[in-house]
């Protein structure tokens, strides 16, 4: 058991007006592991991720990062802690190239000018460290890239910073099978290089292919967080659809 | 009692260790070498001088200048374009030949299709030799071939590299290595080994299993091959026939296997079975791996028959992995060749079977991974195998080749 989880949430609540979206949610993510976050549409996955990423604050509960209580109030706060979120829309700029996108809003400067050489070198080094050979030149514009290549750039951007936790929201949703496979292998490499990775996915093959743990949300509650090696496809599907499966899930 | 190693043996060992380090880990400064190999800098300097004189490495300034002050330390770099091996991968429906430089760079490669079924050994040797010659011709004038090795999808005897049996390529009792070496006439032997064993070696030394000393590699190419690494060494058994995971019986009432038994993993998970379950016939001229990928792709798009086919195949693959986990307690199981696609397309089923069938203790930490080298794992493994002699005794091989060159052929 790794000592302290990178991310630990306990007893988290979140409401939007009268609608209580998260009730008493607990969730952990460990360094070197992929934690799959599963649940039906409306189970609260996106709300949970937005809370982790500082888009909105939780109403109540414990939020610990590397064991220390924190309260990120903006995505910038979260990034300063080492939390990177890759949203479904990827947030890449079509008219900029790969390097410019990877450093967007966090450009390196050399005196008053941008340090293009250093940024290009760092971008290329990150891509090669992650064994990404599919994007060609780092000076290609994002508008020229395929869906899988864009996803790769978005994920590599998250790994470029001294990130400790990377959250991926449905990274393979719009991709063909070959590109999905490459993205899954990239996700796995991120964790194997020591990051804590949270993967939201509806595809059970993807979840089982790369995850070390599965956390299931059902109607805004955590119903189980288990090691993937200990559960079956059927159990995970039951947790998603009915909130319990045999011994797993909250006691009635 | 045996006397301790002689200074000559120690020097040879150190030369091999240094060369192996830059071969596997890439160019390194003397300082890094000294620290990593636990030798002092003057020894490193002497060893580097010997390897440089033999034409195996060169020392140069680092490519991108460091940002630290002071004179940058020289970097020891393998002579990757000058010193190379020939690597052969005999697949069931294709032949791949590559020229691989010291340091592991694939310098050039040629791939040819092979008709399935009965293969004439003479034709096979001819096809391999002509591809190899074309690659050798393109090498620079000063380039030297220091070894050759071939991966074969079948049972190979370790002692002499003789092919005993190929279930999916109809060849048996054939000394392919000697025949090919004679045709090539490069003065180097052609070593022969099981293709999945070489895949295991490649993933262990250069792929996803780097630093992992207990791993099981499963390779899909029409049939299923396996290579097992225990304590950092390939497990071959008494005669090197071991590790045939493809012929582990997983379903006693199962399908007939080309080896004569029933319900082997090969028969339950191999490409013909997957295509059969998916209701597909292989299009003429379509390579097997394309057909397998087409099934995985169809399943991803929601094709019910393709999904069912992957589910069935995933069940047997899961049983096999559970058995392997229980018997070998590997840190990692790597899926390569077409099994990479099959695993990613049926992971939920594979891991469900492992969760229910494997013992909790060895299952707890095992990592299931896809091959970083993909279809090329056996080819890269063959290259590593071909470098064995050079790395064991770095100065002897170039000397021998030089002598052969100077002695006129009578």
Number of helices of chain A: 8
Number-wise, the strands of chain B total 17
User: What general form of chain B does the structure show?
Assistant: globular
- Terminal-residue CA separation of chain B: 45 Å
Mean pLDDT of chain A: 89
CATH architecture grouping of the domain at 28-93 and 147-242 in chain A: 3-Layer(aba) Sandwich
Radius of gyration of chain A: 18 Å
Explain what the structure shows.
The complex is a heterodimer of chains A (252) and B (410). Chain A is an alpha/beta fold and 252 residues long. Chain A has a domain of 162 residues: P-loop containing nucleotide triphosphate hydrolases (Rossmann fold, 3-Layer(aba) Sandwich). Chain A is built from 8 helices and 12 strands. In chain A, helix 4 crosses helix 5 and helix 5 runs parallel beside helix 6. Chain B is an alpha/beta fold and 410 residues long. Chain B has 3 domains: 72 residues, Winged helix-like DNA-binding domain superfamily/Winged helix DNA-binding domain (Arc Repressor Mutant, subunit A), CATH 1.10.10.10; 144 residues, Nucleotidyltransferase, domain 5, CATH 3.30.420.40; 162 residues, ATPase, nucleotide binding domain (Nucleotidyltransferase, domain 5, 2-Layer Sandwich). Chain B has 15 helices and 17 strands. In chain B, the strands form 4 sheets. Chain B has a 5-stranded mixed β-sheet, sandwiched between helices. A 5-stranded mixed β-sheet of chain B has the order 15-14-13-16-17, sandwiched between helices. In chain B, strands 7-11-10-9 form a 4-stranded mixed β-sheet, with no helix packed on it. In chain B, helix 1 packs across helix 3 and helix 9 packs across helix 11. The model of chain B has no long low-confidence stretch (mean pLDDT 91).
């Amino acid at each position: 058991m790794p000592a302290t989880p990178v991310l630990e949430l306990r007893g988290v609540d979140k409401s939007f007006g009268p609608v209580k979206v998260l009730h008493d949610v607990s969730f952990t993510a460990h360094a070197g592991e992929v934690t799959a976050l599963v649940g039906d549409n409306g189970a609260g996955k996106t709300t949970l991720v937005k809370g982790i990423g500082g888009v909105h604050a939780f109403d109540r509960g414990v939020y610990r990062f590397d064991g220390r209580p924190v309260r990120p109030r903006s995505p910038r706060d979260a990034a300063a802690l080492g939390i990177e979120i890759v949203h479904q829309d990827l947030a890449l700029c079509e008219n900029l190239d790969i390097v410019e996108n990877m450093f967007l809003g966090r450009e390196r400067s050399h005196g008053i000018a941008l340090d293009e050489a250093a940024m290009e070198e760092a971008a290329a080094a990150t891509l090669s460290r992650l064994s990404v050979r599919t994007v060609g030149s780092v000076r290609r514009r994002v508008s020229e890239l395929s869906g899988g290549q864009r996803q790769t750039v978005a994920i590599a951007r998250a790994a470029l910073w001294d990130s400790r936790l990377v959250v991926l929201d449905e990274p393979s949703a719009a991709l063909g099978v070959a590109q999905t496979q490459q993205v899954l292998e990239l996700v796995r490499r991120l964790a194997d290089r020591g990051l804590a990775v949270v993967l939201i996915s509806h595809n059970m093959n993807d979840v089982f292919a790369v995850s070390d743990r599965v956390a299931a949300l059902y109607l805004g509650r955590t119903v189980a967080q288990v090691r993937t090696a200990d559960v079956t496809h059927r159990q995970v599907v039951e947790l998603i659809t009915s909130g319990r499966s045999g011994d797993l899930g909250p006691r009635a | 009692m045996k006397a301790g190693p002689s200074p000559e043996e120690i020097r040879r060992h150190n030369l091999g260790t240094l060369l192996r380090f830059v071969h596997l880990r890439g160019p390194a400064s003397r300082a890094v070498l000294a620290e990593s190999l636990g030798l002092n800098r003057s020894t490193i300097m002497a060893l580097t001088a010997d390897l440089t004189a033999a034409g195996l490495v060169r020392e140069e300034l680092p490519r991108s200048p460091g940002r630290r002050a002071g004179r940058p330390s020289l970097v020891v770099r393998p002579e990757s374009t000058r010193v190379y091996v020939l690597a052969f991968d005999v697949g069931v429906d294709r032949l791949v030949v590559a020229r691989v430089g010291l340091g592991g760079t694939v310098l050039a490669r040629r791939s040819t299709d092979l008709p399935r079924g009965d293969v004439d050994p003479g034709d096979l040797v001819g096809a391999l030799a002509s591809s190899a010659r074309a690659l050798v011709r393109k090498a620079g004038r000063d380039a030297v071939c220091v070894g050759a090795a071939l991966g074969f999808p079948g049972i190979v005897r370790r002692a002499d590299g003789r092919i005993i049996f190929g279930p999916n390529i109809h060849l048996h009792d054939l000394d392919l290595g000697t025949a090919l070496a004679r045709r090539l006439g490069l003065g180097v032997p052609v070593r022969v080994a099981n293709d999945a064993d070489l895949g295991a070696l490649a993933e262990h030394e250069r792929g996803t299993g780097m630093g992992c000393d207990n791993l099981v590699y499963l390779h899909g190419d029409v049939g299923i091959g396996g290579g097992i690494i225990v304590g950092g060494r390939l497990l071959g058994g008494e005669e090197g026939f071991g590790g045939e995971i493809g012929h582990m019986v997983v379903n006693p009432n199962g399908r007939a296997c080309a080896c004569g038994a029933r319900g082997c993993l090969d028969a339950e998970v191999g490409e013909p079975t997957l295509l059969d379950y998916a209701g597909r016939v292989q299009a003429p001229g379509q390579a097997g791996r394309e057909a397998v990928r087409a099934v995985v792709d169809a399943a991803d798009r929601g094709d019910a028959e393709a999904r069912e086919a992957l589910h069935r195949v995933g069940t047997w693959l899961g049983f096999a992995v559970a058995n392997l986990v229980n018997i070998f307690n590997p840190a990692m199981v790597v899926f390569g060749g077409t099994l990479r696609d099959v695993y990613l397309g049926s992971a939920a089923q594979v891991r469900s079977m492992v969760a229910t069938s494997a013992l909790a203790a060895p299952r707890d930490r095992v990592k299931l991974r896809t091959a970083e080298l993909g279809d090329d794992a056996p080819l890269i493994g063959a290259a590593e195998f071909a470098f064995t002699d050079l790395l064991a005794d770095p100065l002897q091989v170039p000397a021998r080749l030089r002598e052969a060159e100077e002695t006129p052929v009578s």
